[in-house]
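Cross-check.
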Amino acid sequence: MKKITFGIMLFSIMMMISCAPQKQRPDYPETRKGDVVDEYFGNEVADPYRWLEDDMSDETAEWVKAQNDVTFGYLHSIEGRDAIKDRLTEIWDYPKVGSPWKSGGRWFLMKNSGLQNQYVLYLLEDYNDREGEVLLDPNNLSEDGTVALAGLRVSDDGKYLAYSISRGGSDWNEIFVMEIDSREMLGDHIEWVKFSGIQWFKDGFYYSRYPEPKEGDALKGVNENSMVYYHIIGTPQEKDILVYKDPMHPLWGFGVGLTEDREYMLLYTTESTSGNALAFRKVDEPKGVFTPIVESFDDDFSVLDIIDGKFYTLTNHNAPNYRLIAIDPNAPQEENWTDVIPEKDVVLRGVQLTGGKMFASYMKDAHSKIEVYEYNGEYLYDVDAGIGSIGGFSGKKDDNITFYSFTSYTTPSIIYKYDVEKNESEEFDRSAIKFDSDAYETTQVFYTSADGTKVPMFITHKKGLNMNGKNPTILYGYGGFNISQTPAFRISIIPLLENDGVFAVANLRGGGEYGEEWHKAGTLMQKQNVFDDFIAAAEYLIDNKYTSPKRLAIKGGSNGGLLVGAVTNQRPELFAVALPAVGVMDMLRYHLFTIGRYWATDYGTSEDSEAMFEYLIGYSPLHTIKPDVEYPAVLVTTADHDDRVVPAHSFKYIATLQDTYQGANPVMIRIETKAGHGAGKPTEKIIEEITDEYAFIFDNMGVKPY
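Predicted model, tokenized:
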């Protein structure tokens, strides 16, 4: 009888398995293979999808459409997608207000009523004016919200507003000028500006630009021959005065800053994302020669202003955790430098000079700490705001009122008004989001990486969540370019948290959480440390029952997209879903596009040496995809106007993955149109993209949301 019962049970189980819906491999578009082969130090490397680097060709456009047809067809058919979008739209719709700031004797504010595609610039009567008057609404600059405000600067006399815009997410900017009182747009129009500030001086401003690119090269061509110009209001761009160029070094970039008293101009020269040269001259000497302070690119130098006749300068020179030094322009040699705020065992992220005080922003274990000093370096007190991220304290040296913001993973932004003289904080504005943040908590843990290094990680979830290994989890990371991942409230993680999910952020080497040494430990031939740190974070979440490989998604953008692509290839069994966004996926050719060469200090290039080539190809996501491997579900995201990390990276990567991986998990690409690397993306597009990501995640984890 027992044997018969067991047989019936076994038959029933087999029938259930056979009747259960099985994943079917999506019908991907066929991607033509070319015969391009490159040679690196005697090693031949095939690049069959090189033709996808031509983002302007008809064939690439047809391929993009075909891929999007498959991807959006899949995403829009997922049950529960509409519920995710509805909830995201609901929680996104609340007023978002920045910190007021004073410039040119006037008060300004950026705010968004809720679902506006772009933030709006308001002119205030004073900082207590909570309504203000619209000065510039970028939402009126395009019907679809894809023209974004990229930067702005008010003239010293408060008469003019110069602002830059970005179209479709591109890094290319255009500068326009408005007369504030009349709201009249002047005829000034500056083009081919990239990575530039706006520095007002008398009846014009300084800016940096590149030559106009060749037709078809605007979004992919190498940016060379940076130049600094001075533009006089009311004149055409071709009449702008050339201030500085260096044709002997076409790959260097140049930018300028001015001291508050407008006596000195600072010239910053860069060749990468790390380190800069620094020089200065008197502003009133238009043909004056710049006096060098630092001529190498080994360290970072940023002049705050001139105090008591000396340049107060933030640097990591001989100070991996940064220090504030004073440089005498009459004796700028290093032996004459003096410490104002010496290096400490925590990272000095920045210093603001406001109201006759110095506000030093420190980072301890990836969260903020604010210390206040006299100009002579005497410590006064801390500004307490809690465990999270604090930013602000901007203003001029004679301003007594300033503002700062506080946020954490569970705390939406709170704006505080700060009286410098009294050392008093007063809550000024608090986000009114429809979300019970008190029901959630963030903990910081320290886990062990492959080489024994302790790495911090923030983990956010519902209070009392059952750690049973079944919680849908997103692990986020970046790990590069000295960029720190500090606590910040993200509307985008709410659908995850509300569905009993876990959001984890690992503070990987390569970032700046513990200063320059932490950064360097994740660069060049130590880049594998970043991947090992991320893999160890995933293993920690699994071992401690936060989740399991069937419920773990990994996400990262740009350098973080590289991270996700690399670890997916190295440890595919750890993850259910991988979301590499706008990633650097071709490590052999990244430096050949737009400004990619600037990343060489973190990555090295395939042209440096045979050893560097071998190291890069050893982790390059494009080149380490393997056959006969069960990959997780992969959703690559990129955009057609991304001229920071050109979309060819993602195109070639997904074409290779679709051709190589023969399993049933979807490996797809979502290509946004009229969007770029991320900055300035309209709210509508953001909500759509996050909706699709969650639909993809939950569907491939077997989770039914809401």
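The chain has a mean pLDDT of 94. Residues 24-89+435-701 form a domain with the Rossmann fold fold (CATH 3.40.50.1820). Passed to J.P. for a second look.
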